[in-house]
Design goal:
The chain is of the alpha/beta class. The protein has helices at about 35-40, 60-65, 85-95, 115-135, 180-190, 205-215, 215-230, 235-240, 250-255, 280-285, 340-350, and strands at about 1-5, 50-55, 75-80, 105-110, 110-115, 140-145, 155-165, 165-175, 195-200, 265-270, 270-275, 295, 300, 305-310, 315-320, 325-330, 335. It has a five-stranded mixed beta barrel. The two termini are about 40 Å apart.
Length: about 350
């Protein structure tokens, strides 16, 4: 099986740590390794480095090569422009599928945290076997919900299709993106819903056929790129064609339109968290909600349920903090309630064209 780990995006919800020139996936948010390095590491030793591909923006080429010297240089897929996830997935599958269109491929993301790594690999192996048996299929991997999360996508699934050694497969029904709190609370209490990490296993041939059916204009561009693979003009074609592709999410382009008979769901507890936002990072690292999560030189008094990260040599002190976020970097100090995280992205966007644009 091949793996594509997508490492694009700026990650403004983790600002001021994550910025245009140093996105979250390259930062050492968890321990002494970046989330990108951890994403590669948790596939080992079951899967070979030669089967792992990294898709990211051209501007991050040096960072990728520095952090992942184990990955063959031909396994790096560089996008010359930001065109959203639809074109990114399409191009990566076009490249990998050129030589082996019927081989299972897993789509993964670089800015996630997975506590139960062994279980994660078990699920990937199982999904691989399902796709080998039916190469016109797509297996979504869901995370059993731990709380009523409004900031994630959810998967609704139907009856159980099969169970093998404790891993169950269900019929897919629909995707729900960022539900209301009331909806999320209902989903949490319903065993037929899970969080959607965006992980899935399929074959290049099948998924590219879905692009051709549901996003024909996008497919025409992808076909030009695929036809140029192995020629001296490949880089020129990518640079010319990719920036012209429709800017569209993968869900909008394909997944929301695909015939559900082709889609199944594995819903499991992987210990998965999307650490793309500060409040999600706290939830991933905490033992209990009331616990404070800290990094660096920190002194807290009479404080609870707060995240305080200090990336400087100066001591950061907090008194009577409750459900707060404090992030201290060399040039920015962010202080806000956990509930205000959605406003961070808007604030960062508002800095464009101002004297503080360099901080984005």
């Amino acid at each position: 099986m091949k793996f594509i780990i997508f490492a694009g995006g700026v990650g403004t919800r983790l600002w001021p740590l994550s910025r245009k020139n140093s996105p979250k996936q390259f930062e050492k948010i968890l321990g002494d390794k970046s989330t990108l390095q951890l994403a590669v590491e948790r596939l080992r030793p079951d899967f070979a480095y030669s089967d792992i591909y990294i898709a990211t923006g051209k501007r991050y080429e040096d960072a990728i090569k520095e952090q992942l010297p184990q990955i063959p240089i031909n396994n790096f897929i560089f996008e010359p422009a930001a065109r959203d996830v639809g074109p990114a997935v399409g191009m990566a599958l076009s490249i990998i599928g050129k030589e082996d269109p019927d081989s299972p491929v897993a789509i993964l993301w670089s800015d996630h945290f997975v506590k139960k790594v062994r279980r994660f690999r078990e699920v990937l192996h199982f999904a691989q076997e399902l796709v080998k048996k039916n190469n016109n299929s797509l297996i979504l991997i869901g995370q059993r919900a731990r709380f009523a999360n409004q900031n994630l996508g959810w998967i609704e699934f139907g009856e159980e299709i099969q169970e093998v050694k404790g891993t169950k497969v269900f019929r897919f029904k629909r995707l729900i993106y960022r539900p209301t709190l009331e909806q999320a609370e209902g989903f949490l209490n319903n065993q037929n819903f899970s969080w959607n990490p965006g992980y899935f296993v399929t074959t290049p041939k099948f998924l590219l056929s879905q692009f051709k059916t549901f996003a024909p204009l996008l497919w025409k561009g992808l076909a030009k790129i695929q036809d140029s693979i192995g020629t001296k003009d490949f880089d020129k074609v990518v640079d010319a064609v990719y920036p012209t592709l429709e800017k569209i999410s993968f869900d909008n382009a394909v997944l929301e339109k695909i015939d559900t008979k082709h889609v199944s769901v594995i819903a499991a507890d992987l210990g998965w968290s999307d650490v793309g936002a500060w409040e999600a990072l706290k939830e991933a690292l905490e033992v209990s909600t009331a616990e404070n999560v800290t990094k660096g030189k920190i002194l807290l008094e009479d404080s609870k349920d707060s995240l305080v990260f200090n990336y400087t040599d100066q001591l950061t002190v907090g008194i009577d903090l409750n459900e707060m976020l404090v992030v201290n970097t060399d040039d920015v100090v962010l202080v806000c309630p956990k509930t205000s995280v959605p406003k961070i992205k808007k604030l960062v966007e508002s800095l464009s064209g101002t004297s503080n644009e360099h901080l984005t």
